[in-house]
Amino acid sequence: MANLANLVNLANLAIYQYLPTFHAWGIRLTLIPDAHTLNPSTRIVPEPQDILTDELRYMLRAHREDIIREVQQFQSSGATILWVASDLTHWEDTDPRYGYEIDCEPTYRMLDPPYYAWLYAQMERLKQAHTAGNVSANTYEASCVLFREVHAWAVKHLGKEAMDNALRTTNVRAYVPPSPATLAEYRALWAAARRENSERLTGGVRALEGRE
């Protein structure tokens, strides 16, 4: 199974330690009170479950209480997710199940600090092109409006410190922006996870049948 961390930066929600990993996988975590046990507790229900990897299952078991606190904090704070395309068009939602990237022509990606740094660098290049007379005033101003909206969202939801750090440390020349190719690579991870879960389920059924 490919490691999602090789494809995305999981710091998209800088104040959370575990929740960004599930969001990057396109998994929503729902808390449900479980009153059917001797000691009533809260169940964490991941959706969808067929792309859960062994690493994610372990995380849910090993860090259960911390994850519950993060989900509660995320819900109570009204925090949202911003998907941004390389042309700076963007839209906001609260449901991570779309996944880290969405094919909406163009491809949109969850905003995280490194992606912000790349977008910032693109705006600097556009400014230089505008100053040189290679980009019209209307085109430049329209992009500035969109970037200011993205910037305001990033400062509010990701934090100015995270943005400043990304601007200092991100290798924007090596950064790979969203595209049909990166989306295909991302979806391949989903497909691999679903195959593994299907094979695990099939193996479990066969084991039970062998005991009969």
What features would you highlight for this structure?
4-stranded antiparallel β-sheet; alpha+beta; 7 helices; two-stranded antiparallel ribbon; 212 residues; single chain
Characterization of the model:
The protein is α+β, with helices and mostly antiparallel strands and 212 residues long. The protein has one domain (4-211). The chain has seven helices and six strands; from the N terminus they run αββααββββαααα. The chain has a four-stranded antiparallel beta sheet, with helices on one face. Strands 1-2 form a two-stranded antiparallel ribbon. A hairpin with a 3-residue loop joins strand 5 and strand 6 (107-110). Helix 4 packs antiparallel against helix 5 (137-157) and helix 4 packs across helix 6 (160-169). Residues 5-13 and 204-209 have low confidence and may be disordered.
